[in-house]
Design goal:
The chain has 16 helices and 16 strands. By secondary structure, it is of the alpha/beta class. It folds into three domains: 400 residues, Glycosidases (TIM Barrel, Alpha-Beta Barrel), CATH 3.20.20; 69 residues, Oligo-1,6-glucosidase, Domain 2 (Oligo-1,6-glucosidase, domain 2); 59 residues, Golgi alpha-mannosidase II (Immunoglobulin-like), CATH 2.60.40. Strands 9-8-7-3-2-1-11-10 form an eight-stranded parallel sheet. The protein has a five-stranded antiparallel sheet with strand order 12-13-14-16-15, with helices on one face. The protein is globular. It binds alpha-D-glucopyranose (GLC) and calcium ion (CA). Alpha-D-glucopyranose binds next to loops.
């Protein structure tokens, strides 16, 4: 039975101004997908009062912050990443008053609030896009987006053959014959970041939420904002040959994007403590990523390296060393994440051994194949996921957790086509087959009821029968549950997390990683299948029970030496 050492005291009291400003450096951040978290009024859609009602749950879980995926007014063409109005709450999920109530309730228990900002594109229902459509060619209103004439005799061909991220062309035609650019769905027109009004408006949005007490921002596709749309656009094939690492690619990761974040930083620093931001930027190299994490810019950037890795000691070690090296470039801290609203859950990815691979792609392939349960190692997946998560929670830096992983949830694959919502499913995205709905299914809070306690009625995405076995209420009082494991790990992490350093300790076994943190906190993960000896010391927590004092395969232990 894992034990929590009662005499341990927190290293950080968190009350000096420096601690206050640095709260994010080693935070455990829990991602909430608001429409699928908890439904307070029985309309099938999770809402802000639903989150407020679960504050005691979040407090007991022991996270330092929550990050909310978009809750803004939206037609949900892309799950809310199509924003109609950046400074309002979607009436389907609450009001601004509900938002303030939620922030107050979270703050009252010491949980910070991070909101998602979507600056690459608005929705096609945004007031400025409507205005642009109604305005003539060449107008000031059209300059806020990327409108262009088409090719061909009558402009009937798109300006280029570019393909959108979820499939289909990246240009759509307006009734008057011009075309507009959308990196994602046609309902998500890209902003023109060369336009000063666009820049000003986002500064106003950052101030609006900061004034309401928001502690930080997660910046959606932070690397795509600035574009160079020269007269002669390159073809899709030409684009693919261009270096995405040079800072001069026409569409991605252009150097000028950092001028925008320098302006944002000025807004963040007007607050006490300064507002925090983390970039979602799938860029090519550590050096490119570091620019987003600069203290003159957003301050932190997601690393998705562990998320795309196999459950493999060698890969993990290389990734961690490289990421720690990288954050030294800027003085930021690293981020670690296994699951979010865009990928198949890591318990499932790690449970797909029969497919001979555990990467995100394998998860996607499995979902595409209809998620045959007989090819999924249900227990092995969760065992490896817990080992990996406990390993991650021992690392210096911030750990991002995704709602439902603390329940040991697997991906839901068998969602009928007519119940699916993700545009990447309907548009036949090349990178995905069935899309991302399987990790966005509303959570099971109770083992029964019309939507397993999610709400008083149904849920907006169908929940599978097996959700009954994963209910939060059943796990709550079960000391051996995944939920109890997450709570213990997060509580201990809070006590143990001291300096930002770690040192590898050689194990002489290629399947076993061992590192030490300040204060005698040792983390040991056995990626192999044979039990191994543990260093002498007090075992604070292990992801599975020890076997005669030894660490079984696919398991992690925290030891105080
Ligand atoms: C980000 C989001 C994803 C969304 C896309 C477009 O990658 O995480 O969910 O579809 O941006 O906004
Ligand atoms: Ca609701």
């Amino acid at each position: 039975m894992p034990t929590v050492a009662a005499e341990l005291q927190p290293h950080h009291q968190g009350d000096s101004p420096a601690d206050e400003a640095n709260w994010w450096r080693q935070a455990a951040v829990y991602q909430i997908y608001p429409r699928s978290f908890a439904d307070s009024n029985g309309d099938g859609i999770g809402d802000l009062p639903g989150i407020t009602a679960k504050v005691p749950y979040l407090k007991e879980l022991g996270v330092d912050a929550v990050w909310l995926s978009p809750f803004y007014p939206s037609a949900l063409a892309d799950g809310g990443y199509d924003v109609d109005d950046y400074r309002a709450v979607d009436p389907k999920i609450g009001t601004l008053q509900d938002f303030d109530g939620m922030v107050a309730a979270l703050h009252a228990v010491g949980i910070r609030v991070i909101v998602d900002i979507v600056p690459n594109h608005s929705s096609n229902r945004h007031a400025w896009f409507r205005e642009a459509l109604a305005a003539p060619k060449g107008s000031r209103a059209r300059d806020r987006y990327h409108f262009r004439d088409g090719k061909g005799m009558n402009g009937e061909l798109p300006p280029s053959d570019w393909v959108a991220a979820f499939g289909g062309p990246a240009w759509s035609r307006t009734p008057d014959g011009q075309w507009y650019l959308h990196t994602f769905t046609p309902e998500q027109p890209d902003w023109n970041w060369d336009n000063p009004e666009v820049r000003q408006d986002f500064l106003a949005t950052l101030g609006f939420w900061s004034d309401r007490g928001v502690d930080g921002f997660r910046v959606d596709v932070a690397n795509l904002l600035v574009k160079d749309l020269a007269e002669d656009l390159p073809s899709r094939a030409e684009l693919e040959l261009m270096d995405r690492d040079s800072g001069t690619h026409p569409l991605a990761d252009r150097d000028e994007v950092h001028e925008i974040y320098a302006e944002w930083r000025k807004v963040f620093n007007e607050y006490q403590p300064p507002r925090f931001a983390v970039a979602e930027a799938w860029v090519e190299s550590p050096v490119r990523r570091a620019k987003y994490a600069s203290p003159e810019g957003l301050g932190q950037a997601f690393s998705f390296d562990l998320l795309v890795a196999d459950f493999d000691a060698g890969q993990f070690r290389r990734i961690i060393s490289a990421n720690l090296e990288q954050v030294r470039l800027t003085g930021s801290t690293s981020t670690w994440v296994f699951s979010n609203h865009d990928v198949a859950r890591h318990a499932t990815r790690y449970g797909l051994e029969p497919l001979k691979g555990r990467k995100v792609k394998q998860g996607t392939e499995w979902v595409k194949a209809g998620g045959p349960r007989e090819t999924l190692d249900i227990d092995g997946g969760i065992r490896r996921a817990k080992a990996a998560t406990q390993f991650m929670l021992g690392l210096p830096g911030s750990a991002y957790l995704y709602q439902g992983e603390e329940l040991g949830l697997h991906e839901v694959a068998d969602i009928p086509a007519d119940a699916r919502q993700d545009p990447s499913f309907f548009r036949g995205a090349e990178w995905d087959g069935l899309g991302r709905d399987g990790c966005r299914v509303p959570l099971p809070w109770e083992p029964d009821g019309p939507s397993f306690g999610f709400g008083a009625n149904g849920a907006h995405l169908p929940q599978p029968a097996w959700f009954a076995d994963y209910a939060a209420s059943s796990q709550d009082s079960d000391a051996g549950s995944t939920l109890a494991f997450y709570r213990k790990a997060l509580a201990l992490r809070r006590l143990l997390q001291a300096g930002e350093s770690m040192v590898w300790i050689e194990t002489g076994n290629a399947d076993v990683l061992h590192f030490a943190r300040p204060g005698g906190w040792h983390v040991l993960t056995n990626f192999g299948t044979e039990p191994v000896d543990l260093p002498r010391g007090e075992v604070l927590l292990s992801s599975v029970p020890l076997n005669n004092g030894r660490l079984p395969g696919e398991a992690t232990a925290w030891i105080r030496v």
